[in-house]
Amino acid sequence: MLKKAPLFRAFLLSLLVITAGRPAAAQTLEQAAEHLGIHLLPARAFLLPLPGLPVSALEKSAAAGHYLDTASLDFRAVPAAPAAGSREDQEDFRVIFDWQARRTAAQCAAAKAEMSHNYDVFFGRISPFPVPAPAQVKQFFKNVENDSVAAHKFLKDVYKRERPFVRDPRVQPCLPRVQGLSYPSGHSAMARLFALILSDLVPSRRAEFLARADEAALFRVLGGVHHPTDTAAGKALAETLYKQLQKNPAFTAELRALRPLLK
Fold it and tell me: Looking at the DSSP assignment, which residues form a beta bridge with residue 64?
């Protein structure tokens, strides 16, 4: 289908950049995209994450992480949020209702135990570091956490997608009805980012770490507080962030320093 074709989507996005300063043309492009069932990234949001473009001090401050300046990152590898009522959006709700019908009390309890998101919550039970973790390890993952949170908040503000239970009263979460926006999932992004880091430190356990991150993401869907595409976008965001972190000298140096602390 046209809305799935990456070259066609790239063509539309390039037109958006060209016409960013021409409101009438941009409006025409948005109308065409809507007609085709494509959810385009708003012009402001598409331009801001690209390197070299100016943003206000307020935007930079709001986007600041620890190792990364979120406002300078290119987020185009993160898929756009599905348009309301699109086939992807409808499939999201089909999956949510399917889980709502068959989730167990034990699954909901496990999901509830992960309402907060940090290294200990996601990987404390299978950490390759001594328990309790050395202060150096805790600080490193706290720094990465700050980058992950800054990035997902930045994109949530772009898409402003409401939680599934806000959008459809038939969704009955088995988790507390958390505040805030839905796309992308911060839990999914952070768990995946930590898993990628741990996989570099202990490659033999990569499958285990990624499976744990996938489980953390699934908990948010079966719990009724995220759409499946929210969690998929969170995983894509983690991949984007990790590629940028690997280019950061401070991050790579501190990551190397963790290797002697492994069990």
Answer: 69
Residue 117, Ramachandran bin (φ over 0: left; ψ between -120 and 50: alpha; else beta): beta
Q: How far is CA 211 from CA 40, 57, 144, 248, in A?
A: 31, 39, 20, 26
- Nearest by Cα to 75 from 210, 214, 184: 184
- pLDDT digit string, tens, across residues 44-83: 333 344 333 333 433 444 557 899 988 788 899 999 999 9
166-170 contact pairs (CB < 8 A, 24+): 167/84, 168/93, 170/97
Phi and psi (nearest 5°) for 19?
A: -100, 15
Residue 114 confidence class, pLDDT cut points 50, 70, 90: very high
Under the banding of pLDDT at 50, 70 and 90, the label for residue 32 is very low
CA distances from 135 to 121, 142, 258, 262 (A): 16, 10, 11, 13
Q: Which of 237, 106, 116 is nearest to 174 (CA)?
A: 106
* Candidates 3.90.1210.10, 1.10.357.120, 1.20.144.10, 3.40.50.970; CATH matching 87-261: 1.20.144.10
Q: What is the pLDDT of residue 71?
A: 78
Residue 203: pLDDT over 80: yes
